[in-house]
């Protein structure tokens, strides 16, 4: 029973921290506020996580560890580039709709702490695009794709998928959509982005 209680407490802490970090950012969040949101005292919070930085990293790793394996599977399977683009876009957007804080987490922390990514890389699996690049080269040689470097194509995929979430307030202002309308726009992008990229690269 004690083990289950410990796991539940840690899950409460991570859920509470995720919400606080999402709304207030790393610098604006306070450990007491996170403890209150998790319905525990501050001493208990410090027992699990000695500092706000460690808690922030735990929240990030928790989310990233769910996303990275999905995307790595898509990038490294034997499917065509067309299928990879469709599956990557659909999986990424679905995940970020459920975890909207993640893109801003990454950008904020990289700006604040350039060594953060290296620390994450030591403990998590980052995306590996080597097989993706080889598949791009293969399909170019086969006359399936227009010439493009694998790195540039991957950056294009990332940019088109990430930007609307990072710039959510701006996108909502331009489109005059509320949260519900924005979510539907993002759902539509699962096919819109994939079709846009595929039409641009296929011969």
Explain what this protein looks like in three dimensions:
The radius of gyration is 19 Å and the shape is elongated. It has 203 residues and is mainly alpha-helical. The model is unreliable at 1-5 (pLDDT under 50). It has helices at 2-28, 31-37, 42-48, 52-76, 81-98, 102-112, 116-123, 130-141, 150-166, 168-175, 179-201.
Overview features:
203 residues; mainly alpha; 11 helices; 0% strand; disordered N terminus
Helices and strands in order, then pairings?
Elements: H1 2-28, H2 31-37, H3 42-48, H4 52-76, H5 81-98, H6 102-112, H7 116-123, H8 130-141, H9 150-166, H10 168-175, H11 179-201
Largest pleated sheet: none
The helicity comes to over 70%
Q: Please tell me the overall pLDDT.
A: 88
Helix-strand topology string: HHHHHHHHHHH
Rg result: 19 Å
Low-confidence stretches: 1-5
Judged by helices, strands and strand pairing, the structural class is mainly alpha
Shape: elongated
Measured between the Cα atoms of the first and last residue, the distance is 60 Å
Q: Approximately how much beta-strand content do the residues carry? A: under 5%
Count the beta strands.
0
* Tally of helical segments: 11
